[in-house]
Amino acid sequence: MQRRTVSGLLVATGSALIGGAVGLPALIAALSPAWQPATEDWRPLGPLERFPIATMTPSVIVLDHADWPRRVGEQAAFVWRPSTEEIIVYSRSCTDLGCPLEYEAKSSCFLCPCHGGIFAQDGRRLAGPPKSPMLRYANRVHQGILEIDITSLPPAT
Amino acid sequence: MLRSSSRWLVDRFGLGPIWDHLLDRNVPKDPWYHGDGMALLVLLTVLVITGVVLSMGYCPAVDEAYQSVEYISQRQILGWFVRGLHYWSGGLMVVMLFLHLCRQLLNGGYKSPREGTWLIGIFLLCIVVTTSLLGYVLRWDQRGFYGLKVLLAGLQSVPVLGERLVLLIQGGPEITSLTLSRVYALHVIILPMLLIGLVSYHVYLVILHGTTTLAERKEPIETVEEQRELYQEQAEHPVQGEAFFPTAVLKISPWSIVSLAVAMGLALTWGPRKLMAPASSASSEPVSEEWWFAWYSGLVALLPPSVAPTFQWLFPLAVFCGLMSLPFIDRSPLRGWRNRPVATVLVTLLVLAVLGLSWLRYQSPWTPRTSAEVPATPAAFELAHEAEQGRQLFRQYGCTNCHSVAGSGGSQVASDLAQLDTIYSQAELRQYILQPPQGVAMPSYAGRMSDDELGQIVAYVLVAQTFPRKQE
């Protein structure tokens, strides 16, 4: 092997090592939040009496600003109790592209302002491009208070 | 003295080679309207300068970002102008880039030896479109917030990798401070760095291989050698060639001047984009995308549910792959739009589709109108008491959100009652309202209205079916 070839290889290997030593940790640090596990986070919506049966009740959770990383100030949900036993808490996100659904009480439909998604009271898709029914938060009643797990939805909603 | 010091400057700062290879060279004559590329460079420069200034006033924290944008627009001296210029230059850049792309598609600008120039250009297209979206996410108002959500929902639809991609952009399982920091890093550092690097390379390749000349468009050119020979011959020709600087630069400058003037004019008259309510998933302000994405919004609204989720990721991927492979698929030796009828038809259709879909989006006939009026009754008709009650209930129960009656009152989401294909009987209408057929986007009214009310609405619809199709 010629001297020049060896030198060239040395330079290439050295550069690759330096690049790896800096680039790899940088890449891992930048990508790491993608592997952060979601931990359950139960937040109160209010006493159960506040949510009458057969009435769609909009509800807003104000998220405290103490923790880091901070969340977006408010999260909206709709509480629907078809019967005394059953409680459904809908996410406000349209299942098409995540636009905010509005509940229209006169026709009792959820309307999407973006691309014409319409959902029924029971979360079923009625019209527009959405494929799946409305998303539901995991909920529980704890000492008479209705709570939802705000991390129970898929990440992009 | 002056002469010797200028010679010193040229020599020590290596300006000679720049002059020789970049400015003092001959190029084939180009028509004046071929300055769209240069206009993009001018807009990019404006965006970099205004962007640097904006970054000094902006705070990428979820609870402060919105206020900092308000501060820039309302209190910082000339902040409104800088933000306005940044906004309008950004929007115009997307438009100009689309025109630039169309021109290359028409003329076959991707043909040899310019394949490399084209491929870099496609990457630039992706970067510009992404940056233009992330830019308005930074405003952290409703429009920006839901722009981000739509982007994330699109990423989520990618098979296998979707969720990981969302977590990566979001910086965790939810939209948090980390999300905004990441969007900031992308819009302000990562993408502009890539953009400036690749633009420089693109321009270098344009200087090296030139642009598609008029002579190249006259006859078929089979080989690279043939093209190079023709190009050189044209460049050196006393009539068909000209000096790049200042002759050609000056001639192709109208696009740049117009772009800059339009951006400045819009910034001065309309100012920066008006902020919507601060980002929140609880606000009731209706959201929409920025105008340069309206066509895409119109397009996805037309999709049936069976296609929609696949389309979100397949469409951008297909456009990217299609454009990247174009120079290798289209091997015909013909250049210039006159010799390429297929390309000309397709590009015309593309432009029409973009304009048509944008127009459709601003009409949004698929969105129910909750503020609709009680539908009017044609003059020739007089409603009985029961039917008149029904007409009032028609709005009260939200029927007018979707139905219009002889073109009056509602929107176009569902059938106009005066334009139904079949005339329904009283019993059929009762059944329909209580239990709409499967697959019909109408909510069931069973248990929600009294029998009297149902009777009144049915009485109204029975008459409305017989109205003339369209009221004068």
At a glance:
The complex is a heterodimer of chains A (157) and B (472). Chain A is α+β, with helices and mostly antiparallel strands and 157 residues long. Chain A is 18% helix and 29% strand.
Describe the secondary structure blueprint for this structure.
The complex is a heterodimer of chains A (157) and B (472).
Chain A lengths: L2 H29 L10 E6 L9 E6 L11 E7 L7 E4 L10 E3 L4 E3 L6 E3 L4 E3 L10 E5 L2 E5 L8
Chain B lengths: L1 H11 L2 H9 L2 E3 L7 H20 L9 H10 L4 H29 L7 H23 L4 H15 L5 H9 L6 H33 L14 H13 L4 E3 H8 L2 H16 L24 H8 L6 H22 L11 H23 L21 H12 L29 H9 L16 H14 L8
Antiparallel strand pairs in B: 1-2
Structure write-up:
The complex is a heterodimer of chains A (157) and B (472). In chain A, 18% of the residues lie in helices and 29% in strands. Chain A has 157 residues and is an alpha+beta fold. Chain A is elongated, with a radius of gyration of 25 Å. By secondary structure, chain B is mainly α. Chain B is 60% helix and 1% strand. In chain B, strands 1-2 form a two-stranded antiparallel ribbon. In chain B, helix 5 runs antiparallel to helix 12. Chain B starts with a helix and ends in an 8-residue tail after the last helix. Chains A and B meet through strand 3 and strand 8 of A and helix 7, helix 8, helix 13 and helix 14 of B.
